[in-house]
Amino acid sequence: MVLLLLLMTLSCSELPNSCSDHCDLVELNSFHDCTGRHVFDQVIFYEWAPDQSRYHVRAWIISDDDGNAGRRPAKRYRDGLYITRWNESGINRVVTATHYRRSWTQIDPERANKKLLDEQDRHQFARPAIKKPEQPPSEPNE
Q1: How far, in Å, are 22, 35, 106 from residue 39 at the CA level?
Q2: Where are the alpha helices (DSSP H) in the chain?
Q3: Is 63 in contact with 43 (CB distance < 8 Å)?
Q4: pTM
Q5: Helical residues (DSSP H) of 13-142, grouped into ranges
Q6: Residue 9: CB atoms within 10 Å
Q7: What is the pLDDT along the chain (142 residues), one digit of tens a residue?
Q8: Domain range summary for the chain, segments of one domain joined by +
Q9: Ranges of H-type helices in 42-117
């Protein structure tokens, strides 16, 4: 149990191929087209911009419809945070959020937010250092 708690507190650089982050708000959004037909679900991560009194998108992911509940935020009752887990190109990501909201829209909130803050100006999630597996020493030629 102690080892598990220790591993959960390590930062991106300390735990190979894994990364933890925190945001202020996580939103599970169901996007519908103009006829009301469901198109996709996405999870959007926001940070609060106090100088502008609004949230800005940090990142987003498409939420799978294959029953993979990890890509959907879930409340962690021991501390009241919302946690989202997924694997992104071999990187295990864990993002916690202080607040949660659920929405059904015909406007993509992530795209609309780009008009307020360009995607390249977003405060991105940390990038972990990918640890390559060690190779055995080569044998000298005889």
Answers
A1: 28, 10, 10
A2: 2-9, 109-114
A3: yes
A4: 0.74
A5: 109-114
A6: 9
A7: 333 333 344 444 445 677 889 999 999 999 999 999 999 999 999 999 999 898 998 888 888 765 555 589 999 999 999 999 988 888 888 999 999 999 999 999 988 888 777 777 666 676 665 555 566 666 666 5
A8: 14-121
A9: 109-114
